[in-house]
TrEMBL record, chains A, B:
GO molecular function terms listed in the Swiss-Prot or TrEMBL record: carboxy-lyase activity; hydrolase activity
One term under GO cellular component: cytoplasm
Name of this protein: Amidohydrolase
Domain of life: Bacteria
């Protein structure tokens, strides 16, 4: 039987001008003027390959050639009025918020249509900003009604940002709404880092630090009591590695036990009041509420799968990014999973994503029978990397977009 | 033979009004007015125990009762004009800088006298701020001439601070001067974290994150080329744990190799220009230039000593802090080092600190013969913790002082 493969981390978006029909018409004139002066700085969004982002037929064809039958769709291209960023929304100044929020709404509406072009094969992720929680809640309700089963992409909050940190109770209506509607909350690598100066050392240091800034959301939500108040909420940490998780969970559990120790140390005094509201240990919230969009997993990550939780991990191809596994996903899967038992492989490659994002595995099965890699193929170790395969490294073009 | 023990992490400072004679007289009136209205918020600086910070005889006596013969002295009390912080200097607004810098100079001058009261037993650490590099260099030269062999305490720079990040070349005169004079550069845990809101969740999250913000200095200096340009510089990471080091060095080496790979990935493009200036791998700079003031090491840290480098690690009691090992340092040493070979134990408890901070081990030997724990005592495992012993946890009172 062929393996059914879902990519839990893919990217899509419209070509800039194609967002226009999805943009509120009161903004068309402003958009036209803005778009005329806009120069897209991203090579991969100008090249012929860029059509992968929005050409539904091309996308399905290339996906299937790569052995994949369905995907979760994060953003990728430039939304209206976004100077740089789209992958994760920024926290704009009040004067900028209104038109950027409209730009994201246009993307979300385009995404709903794009998903509808391949029913059951695409789980689109809706974007929100954190500046106005009522707006965010309204957009989440719209996205749910519009069938964006990918849930919501929540941007990170860098230290010193103009909006409160993610652990703040002001965001509770967002978590409550997502829990109520069963919308997963996604947090994608590249987000939450402070601004960056354009000099060589800042750029190098940024690469070293950027994943940590995305990881922060995990303990912000845990100690913020978000999973305590919303036991059904599903939170997904995507494209920020997975090998950090066991160590961080141990650290968080350590602090939790110190905070709850009831002794008079300064540590308990500091952390006690927050921890006393939590009925579970951090690792227990993780095991109940959290998932990992582990994207192009390295062979060094699979030995940690039981510590992280086999039922929490979701592979992704990162299509159409250069550093993703396309068009060598079959080889990438062999490389990382050849020695993983079939049942666990199926959970990481399809079952978990189906559970989190609502894919119907029975409906996808005929596609897998047609295009999926065979179990025998995936059980073969990869002896050499395909020529032309890029390294599965962090998506830096994406990060740049996140500023 | 008794073990010679040096604490590479202790704290001292004057009672507030005793800084007055060390303060430039033009500021005396301003100081008197400020001091009158100042209320010290720290319980341990008001209690009878506070005299440990400045009473030379009491300090020596308690140190010796604890089996220790010499110590490196970081700050602890409130320097003139400091609203909260003293342990690590802040980055004040321009209007505040002048008098805070004068406050630190008063502390440094007091510290030189305090060290002179016990020659060879105290290595005082001089404080600087980063707002004015010329001032900092002048103070380092003064500190060297005044015999402050503890070197310099460099404050961390939180994201978004008003001064450039630690990797900035504007600080090169500081590193150059320290290298030239053989002054160690110390970076103490609690520094470099962004501000903190006074609510329970912020406090808990702060504890989880604060050490990472101190660790950042390591890769900022490495990728900033500081150790490349100043091969003789000695950099000490104090009271921020040691168990994170092997993992971080692996990560930094990984990025370095990616940055140097010469390929066209975005990662190489980002990090390449900085890494191409570095002739060594991050772990090689660490092994040449860096030391760890590991303070109250836990038994779980000694198995990592070869990965970190036995010749890099320095134990400390954190006297007079509550969470330090006093008055149970003998027990703490047995607990952590009973199964560490004598030669390695001696390096971590004395030899490395002597090399970094210029202690004369021969001159200290008679004191160790008189008060040090015997080798036999230290070789005995600790079967139960002394009643009243506090847990060796991170120094949070200290952190509060660092804001």
């Amino acid at each position: 039987m062929n393996q059914l493969v879902i990519s839990a981390d893919s990217h899509a978006g419209a070509d800039l001008l194609d967002y226009r029909p999805y943009l509120e018409s009161r903004l068309h004139d402003e958009f036209d003027a803005w778009a005329k002066g806009y120069v897209n700085p991203f090579a991969d969004l100008q090249a012929p390959e860029a059509t992968r982002n929005w050409d539904s037929d091309r996308r399905l064809r290339e996906l299937e050639e790569d052995g994949i039958v369905a995907e979760v769709l994060f953003p990728n291209t430039i939304a209206p009025f976004f100077p740089m960023a789209n992958l994760t929304a920024p926290h704009p100044a009040p004067g900028e918020y209104e038109r950027l929020a409209a730009g994201l709404r246009a993307h979300n509406r385009w995404m709903a249509d794009f998903c509808a072009q391949a029913p059951g094969r695409r789980a689109g992720v809706a974007q929100i900003m954190l500046n106005d929680v009522d707006d965010a809640v309204e957009e989440i309700r719209w996205a749910h009604a519009a069938g964006l089963t990918g849930g919501v992409l929540v941007p990170g909050v860098p230290p010193g940002a103009s909006v409160p940190p993610l652990h703040s109770e002001v965001y509770d209506p967002i978590w409550r709404t997502c829990a109520e509607l069963g919308m997963p909350v996604n947090h994608h690598g590249g987000t939450g880092a402070p601004g960056l100066e354009p000099n060589p050392v800042s750029l190098a240091v940024f690469i070293v630090e950027v994943s940590w800034y995305a990881h922060r959301a995990l303990w912000h939500l845990i100690f913020g009591g978000v999973f305590e108040r919303h036991p059904d909420l599903r939170f997904v940490l995507t494209e920020q590695g997975s090998d950090w998780i066991p160590g961080v969970l141990k650290t968080l559990d350590y602090y939790y036990s110190r905070f709850r120790s009831g002794d008079a140390t300064a540590e308990a005094k500091f952390g006690g009041p927050a921890a006393s509201r939590l009925s579970l240990k951090p690792s227990e919230y993780f095991a109940r509420n959290c998932y990992v969009g582990a994207t192009f997993m390295k062979p060094s990550e699979t030995p940690l799968r039981h510590e992280i939780g086999v039922e929490r991990l979701m592979w992704g191809s990162d299509f159409p990014h250069d550093e993703g596994t396309f068009p060598y996903s079959r080889e990438a899967l062999r490389r990382t999973f050849h020695d993983v038992p079939a049942e666990e492989k199926t959970a990481i490659l399809a079952g978990n994503a189906a559970r989190v994002y609502g894919f119907d595995l029975d409906a996808l099965r005929p596609h897998a029978d047609r295009v999926g890699p065979s179990e025998e193929e995936l059980a073969q170790p990869l002896t050499e990397l395909p020529e032309g395969a890029t390294s599965p490294v962090f998506n830096l073009e994406t990060i740049i977009r996140a500023w």
